[in-house]
Structures are given as structure tokens and as C-alpha cells.
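Attaching the record inline, Q. Sequence:
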Amino acid sequence: MGLAGLSLWKVGLVLVLVLVLVFFGGKRLRGMGADVGTAIKELRQSLAEEAPPPAVRDEAEPDRRARS
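Structure, as predicted:
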């Protein structure tokens, strides 16, 4: 068991999050979060845009040329 009924994994995760907050600071984390959000939004928009359909090649066309 861990502290106050928390597992060791949860205590470790909270400790890592606190260290990241202390190391980077709140402003930098907020900026990084905004950058990640913008990147995800742009990715979704690019995936939602329809790409032109590929050209369909007629398979019977080479046979007609060979017979002529």
C-alpha cells in the first residue's frame, strides 16, 4: 500500500507532475499546451480536407491499341 491508501504508482505520478511543474513553470507549460492544441487542431483540419480522387485508369484501353 502507499500513503493514505494511494498506490505507489499514483504517488510517483503526482511526484513527477510536481517536478515538471517546478522545472518548467506554469507559463511555459501553458504555452506548450496551447502549442499542442494548435498542432492537433491543424492536423484534424488537414485530415478533414478532401484530397482529389486518384485518376482511374481504363484497363481495356491498352488492348484496343494492341489490336489496331
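Residues 1-46 form one domain. The first helix runs from residue 8 to 24.

More tomorrow.
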